[in-house]
Amino acid sequence: MTTYREAGVDIEAGNRAVALMRAAVQATYTPAVLAGIGAFGGLFDAAALQTMTAPVLVASTDGVGTKVKVAAQMQRFDTIGADLVNHCVNDILVQGGRPLFFLDYIAASRLAPAEVAAVVTGMADACRAVGCVLLGGETAEMPGVYQAGEFDVAGTIVGVVERSRIVDGRDVQVGDVLMGLPSNGLHTNGFSLARRVLAGLDWAAPHPELGAGRSIGDALLAVHRCYLPEVERLWAAGVVIEAMAHITGGGLLDNVPRSLPAGLGAGIEAGAWPAPPIFE
In degrees rounded to 5, what are phi and psi of residue 7? Predict the structure, then answer.
């Protein structure tokens, strides 16, 4: 008789991963969590939304692309989870949404409990930083689907925004000011090109042009920034934001037009800001 383990699936490894990540996940819980780890589905008490005038849920699902291959090559798994959460937070932020809860999915050819726990701990830390609950997730071991040593992560976020405060670009006018918030690297997109361009270099050695003691691997794994704190400071200062774009896949050329009404374009002065050294 062939066992599940002999077929390439180690149930005990999955259980160990859950045990290692449990404390980090539960640290994100608030009184709104009615069921979390161990339940078939996460339960989140939405009673607080009753204090809003017209709450609108805003949701997004995304991954981090081939940045997972950089994490695997560098054997560093503590940043990729934060990348995923921050990416998703930014995606709903550009429509005015603030996060409520997050769900993750991790799949691999073979589960390494410590690595999975490091990824999820990074997610939990990023969730806590923005007051978001890590409500649930799935860890899948799928030999034959993923090559040996390969893994992938994806996440879904659900947030809320008052209907009257949805940011949709409809009131953008000629003469409005376009302001950029600086990234600290490649975010979570463009890594297929970056890995190809940089393939012949030593990713672990310090490169002076990247900063003191910083390696290519360090620069590539820089955590995708969360822009919620900066945007909240602008809102608190009374700044009216008519449109926002999250600059990810497709860069400025693809993402800025998504936030503008038909017939309007954006004038961007190339070179008006310093590019992070990794771009050079």
Answer: -80, -5
Alpha-carbon distance of 113 to 194, in angstroms, equals 29
Q: Residue 88: in which H helix or E strand, if any?
A: helix 80-93
Span 211-225, pLDDT tens digits: 888 999 999 999 999
Residue 72: CB atoms within 10 A of its CB come to 17
Helices 11-26, 113-129: axis angle to 10 degrees equals 20
Residue 31 and residue 48 in contact, taking contact as beta carbons nearer than 8 Å: no
SS3 per residue for 129-157: HCCCEEEEEEEEECECCECCCCEEEEEEE
Phi-psi region of 89 (alpha: psi -120 to 50; beta: other; left: phi over 0): alpha
For residue 258, give both structure tokens: 């998504």
Q: Which tens digits make up the pLDDT trace of 81-123?
A: 999 999 999 999 999 999 999 999 999 988 888 999 999 999 9
What is the rounded CA–CA span in Å between residue 72 and residue 24? 22
Record the pTM: 0.92
For residues 123 and 186, give the distance between their C-alpha atoms in angstroms, rounded to a whole number: 19
- The CA distance from 209 to 228, in Å, is 30
